[in-house]
Structures are given as C-alpha cells and as structure tokens.
Amino acid sequence: MAIAGLGLTTSAITVGVLATVQLLATGWAGICSMSLRQEVTPQHLLGRVTSAFWTLHNSLGPLGAAALAGAAARYGVMVTCVVGGTACVAIALAALATSIRQRRPETVEVT
Fold it and tell me: Are 18 and 5 in contact (CB under 8 A)?
C-alpha cells in the first residue's frame, strides 16, 4: 500500500514516510521468507534451497526494474506506482489464501 501511496502524493514528507514504511515492510518480508524457508526445508537441503532462492530473486530483480522503468517512462511515475502497489497488495492477498498460513503440527525426531 505504501508503494501505491507514493503515486498518490505530492508531499515530500509523505514520500519520505511511505518510503520508510516500504523499506521496513521489505525487511519484515525478508525475515518472514527466510524463517519460512528454514522451517519447511529439510536441513540437508537448506543450503541448496537458499542458494536457488537468492539466485532467482537476484536474477529477476533487474527484469522487474526494467519493466517498471519502462512503464514509468510510458505512463508516468504516479500511474506506475499506483498500479505496482496495487499489484503488490493483490499478490499479498492471494498469498493469504494459500496453505502458508496454516500451522504445521510440531514433529518429534526420534533418535
């Protein structure tokens, strides 16, 4: 919502506040993502899964940046921020409908 808000404001102070909120939310999402990966990935595969995640994450980032820069050049920054922010909210809401929110029963390892 902070990204969409950037497209709706003209106040420098509001831009600063929304950018801070977005940065904090990104950090929080990273912590949740890493915690979930560590929880659901078997220990012997954790390095490979984490490596694959960061490879995909970092290789697709420039494509998204190029797409957003192209959209901003064609449609304007305000429209691009509103559409991009709305897409982020839609993706987050779709994630809530998945099984990711369900608690798994704790497993007990027998040694």
Answer: yes
> Could you tell me the two tokens for 84?
């991009």
Predicted structure pTM score = 0.70
> Under DSSP, is residue 85 helix (H, G, I), strand (E, B) or coil?
helix
CA–CA–CA angle 84, 49, 37 (5° rounding) = 65
**Are the beta carbons of 30 and 103 closer than 8 angstroms?**
no
Handedness of CA 99, 95, 66, 29 (dihedral sign): negative
pLDDT in tens, 15-58: 999 999 999 998 998 898 888 888 888 999 999 999 999 898 88
| Position 90 pLDDT exceeds 90 | yes
The token pair at 24 is 């904090």
The answer to whether residues 38 and 54 touch, using CB atoms and an 8 Å cutoff, is no
Averaged pLDDT, 96-107: 70
Specify burial of residue 17 (Cβ count, 10 A radius: 0-12, 13-18, 19+): middle
